[in-house]
Amino acid sequence: MDIRYTESGDISGLKQVLDQTKLFSSDMLEGMVKGFLDGETDDLWLTLEVQGVALGFCYANPEQMTEDTWNILALAVSPTLQGSGAGTQLTEQMEVQIDDQGGRIVIVDTSGTDAFAKTRRFYENAGYIEEARIRDFWSKGDDKVTYWKALS
Fold first, then answer.
1. Residues contacting residue 2 through CB under 8 Å, at least 6 positions apart
2. Is there a single domain that holds both residue 121 and residue 97?
3. DSSP label of 63
4. Which of 26, 48, 76, 79 would suit a FRET pair with 88, their CA atoms being 20 to 30 Å apart?
5. pLDDT computed for residue 83 by the predictor
């Protein structure tokens, strides 16, 4: 496995990952990553590659109006790699990149539904602490759960 900055040639493979994981619509990907690829944003996009194929990504950006707080907005790994440590490696590498940018805190927002219990356990196992819960945020019965981690 190799983790590196996302490149335009990764988009096709990453769309497949999104279609498999249903994290969000793969149609949104090109618009989301465009600013990073063009060097127009402070966003960070990392791609996990196996034998030349993009099989995962992590996306983060600095939180506006904060002092060095970053938000991991998306993390997806091909179902064929889930449970292999690939997501952990991506998250750890993103934390290194954020730290290199002067970041001091990382937050992650996820769903409070049973369908996201595995996701919440993943972040807890990675050292993130549940910091906040907003009831019915995403929809009725679907809380927003915010995780927090200090760097360095």
1. 48, 49, 50
2. no
3. P
4. 26
5. 82
Tell whether 82 and 36 lie within a shared domain: yes
> Do residues 82 and 110 both lie within one domain?
no
Region of residue 93 (left: phi > 0; alpha: psi -120 to 50; beta: else):
alpha
28 and 83, same domain (yes or no) = yes
Structural domains in the chain (count): 2
DSSP per-residue letters across 18-47: HHHH-SS-GGGHHHHHHHHHTT-S--EEEE
Between CA 63 and CA 61 the distance in angstroms is 6
Same domain? 90 vs 150:
no
Task: Show the domain range for 87.
Answer: 1-101
Which residue has tokens 């149609």? 27
Of the candidates 5, 1, 2, 19, the one whose C-alpha atom is nearest the C-alpha of residue 94 is 5
d(CA 119, CA 82): 11
- What span, in angstroms and rounded, lies between the C-alpha atoms of 99 and 78? 26
Structure tokens at 149: 């981690």
**Cα-atom radius of gyration of the chain, to the nearest Å?**
15
Residue 32 has a pLDDT of 95
Which residue stretches of the chain have pLDDT < 50? Answer: none
Do 59 and 47 belong together in one domain? yes
